[in-house]
């Protein structure tokens, strides 16, 4: 499960700690991280559960990312996970 744990940790850090002007880095990394779970139902469920816990909290003003960009990234992560189950 280690690659998935690493991917989740990286995804959460990218979502919350990359400054707004690093949007391209986030957008480029997210598909690669989500690709790790493709075709693996148990891994996908694990990733969803952890990401939901980490990203369903309200925006923290101590994060490097603004509230608006956090919401955009959060939605992108959840849409990416949803697309894998269709």
Largest sheet geometry:
none
- The residue ranges in which pLDDT falls below 50 over 5 or more consecutive positions are none
Radius of gyration: 12 Å
- Helices and strands, in N-to-C order? HHHH
Overall geometric form: globular
Portion in strands: under 5%
Helical coverage, percent range: over 70%
The tally of beta strands, per DSSP, is 0
Structural class of the secondary structure composition? mainly alpha
Number of helices: 4
Q: Indicate the mean pLDDT.
A: 81
Distance between the termini: 23 Å
Number of domains: 1
3D structure, described in words:
The protein is mostly helical. It has one domain (2-83). 71% of the residues lie in helices and 0% in strands. It contains four helices and no strands. The chain has helices spanning 2-17, 23-35, 41-55, 67-83. Helix 1 runs parallel beside helix 3. The longest helix is centred in the last third of the chain and has 17 residues, at 67-83. The radius of gyration is 12 Å and the shape is globular. The model has no long low-confidence stretch (mean pLDDT 81).
């Amino acid at each position: 499960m280690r690659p998935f744990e690493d991917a989740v940790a990286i995804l959460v850090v990218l979502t919350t700690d990359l400054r707004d002007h690093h949007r391209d880095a986030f957008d480029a990394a997210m598909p690669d991280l989500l690709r790790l779970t493709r075709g693996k139902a148990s891994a996908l469920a694990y990733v969803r559960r952890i990401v939901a816990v980490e990203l369903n909290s309200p925006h923290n003003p101590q994060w490097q990312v603004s509230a608006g960009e956090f919401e955009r990234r959060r939605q992108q992560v959840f849409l990416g996970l949803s697309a894998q189950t269709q």
